[in-house]
Specification:
With about 850 residues, the protein is of the alpha+beta class. It has 27 helices and 20 strands. A hairpin with a 2-residue loop joins strand 16 and strand 17.
Amino acid sequence: MAWRDSRSNRSKLFLFMAAIIVGVAAQVSITSFRANLNSSIESQAKELLGADLEVDRNAPFQPELQEVLDSLGGDVSTALEFNSMAFFPKNGNTRLSQISAIEGGFPFYGDLITEPASAASAFQENGSALVDEPVMRLFNLQPGDSVKIGKLTYKIEGAIIEIPGQPVAASFFGPRIFIPKENVEDTGLLQRGSRLEYVSWHKFPEGTDMIAVEERLRELRDEGIRFGFDTVEEREEEVGEAILYLSNFLNLIGFIALLLGGIGVASSIFVYIRQKINTVAVLRCVGVSSNQALLIYLIQAASMGLIGSIMGAALGSLIQLYLPVLIQEFLPVDINLFISWSSIAIGVGTGLVISVLFALFPLLAVKKISPLYSLRSISINLLQLLTNRTKITLSAVLLTFVTAYAWLMIGRIIPAVFFTLGLVACLLLLTGFAKLIMKGSRKFLRAGFSYELRQGLANLYRPNNQTTILLLTFGLGVTMISSLYLTQDMLLGQIDFGEEEDLPNLALYDIQYDQNEGVNEIITSSGHQILQNVPIVTMRIQEINGMNAEALREDTTKDVSGWALNREYRNTYRDSLLETETLVSGEWIGNVDGMNDVVPISVEDDQMENLDAVLGDTLTWDVQGIPIQTYIASTRTVKWDQPSPNFFVVFPAGVLENAPQFFATTINTNSREASLRLQQELVQAYPNVSAIDVGQVVETVRAFLDKVTFVIQFIGLFSIITGLIVLAGSAATSRFQRIREAVLLRTLGASKKQVIKIQVIEYVLLGVMASITGLILSLGASTFIGYFYFDIEFVPNFFIIGVEILILTALVLLIGLLNTRGVHNKPPLEVLRAEVA
């Protein structure tokens, strides 16, 4: 019976299915891709690290650590990693680069892929360099050209294509350059203050007890020896967790698209059942029970959900083939693609459950349709036929399912509950907006308006209107996509300093004490303005209030961050606050006579929490072997988003002038070309000095954010598509009603042009209202994100908002007109016959 009844309505049912198809496709593509990725990570676990063990330290290894590493046996490869300016003589370009001076056969697992392939092994033998392929392409470099690092010039042996365990995106913030470790001390780069990372990779014989190795290294750390290490299992877990967080986030976005599809199904079934009231009443007259009538349409809805879910799973399996193209450069492994049947099963099951749960709202009303309805033409609100208990029960089941699925994706119940509550809040807000729009359009309607405008406004609140369903589905999709755009624009606005003439656009660091005067002379002789020339002294915290690190860790009343306690601090001294700083508490003391007494210092406000400190607490510093006693005299806030040297701790003048130190300098140049010329001159004269081009940093961050947000927007786009499909389904379902209205208007004297104009006005208004509603929510979301997560005051970009409104309105108008095309061409007789039938 369900099959026979559906024969005349299958085109409508396909539109219902389309919403489920898109939602399930989003789910299956993401979960399948995650399964592919997890399998790839597991199979390439050793390639992630390139060795069995990696040990790193920002200073030469202590004798105790080196002794333990030597006792482990196996193959060893070492490296010295640092950032430095690279100069390319072929065209005079410079670029701050990530330098790895390598000795040995790293990587032990996986392949260092170069072009030509022989360069991977030849660069150490020939004393040459490997340069990242993107910068080779950017500067039109070829193997055989040269690169100057420090005082040494290396022949470029080849281009780096792929490094085991490192994604291509690792080069976004500076190209990677490999050089031999031999003679690296002769480069003139390893000066005091340079940030160096000493790395050791180890490959052990088969059967080595890695648990025992880890325990021995942890014992060394417990003894106070500072270093970091990674094993294959730890690296696999770290990468897996990062991938899990990203895929869970994307999966929830895809799940929202599926929920929107469910809302579309519910809306479509409501209209579909309203058209079937007479059929159901007749069936009841001939002996069909209420349960049988319900079962007929429940089978149709379930079949629709099942077929749509299967089609969506097939589409999602195809989409996953495209996902590696989007994010491969962010991944440290090569992805092995395969069909994940478990992901397909979950997607089909989820789509079927969503279809049935949402369809139950209108379908349960079928049980309340009595045989009497076959004799009377009654306008019925199906939702009013359901009891409050039924509505509450169905809503509770649906919310429980949503929470359970979010819990499955996130792995924690509290965030899953907040996800559900946030989704419900958005849907309630959108529903409220829809009701306000319908009520407002009724009140706004004026007799003085043109005939077409009055009819278009009236269509927003008349029976079979599409206002609520469009705002729920399309509005939520717009909210997500627009929030991403606005948040990205907000972040870029914080780092885009190109138009601010009083801010630095070039920063120099690692300037040695005896080089500072010469560097400043080059800058000023070139006609550039020095904004800051800041001394920097490296030191570590030795004690807090007389307690060393071990005592602080054992004291359960203290909550000192290990990062804040163990890090190497780069502090400065001066007699005044900067414009980027604001005193919060205490007294700023800018000058002291010497180190005879306890020295007053100023600490950044957030760092006070990390140190679990208050005003007056004492800190003992190890300034390169010399202890200095200090107390916290003041706290201050710092604008970290400004392109100038900022510090956690500032000493007064008169204390650190004779300590070993280096300098950082910020400059304002009048053009990008002038900045490049200055960098070239400085690199030639002082190879160890590194330069950060602020404009280049902004471009790099912009490119990185563009790639990340594109991935998220690609998944979020499914929600927009779902909203358009639901709109199409709603328009198709109410097509007969539209034809009837058009015929009546034509009968009353309206021209064909007027009928089309009424439809255009209606869909333009719907598009504008849905866009504005979604954008209002996205503005709220972006403000929330900016305030609570980034501590940034959100200022909306009205140009972006205006463009979004135009594009989204055009989409709604296009879909609406396509699905109501031809309604003004129907003859009145056809409608009358349908009414009589």
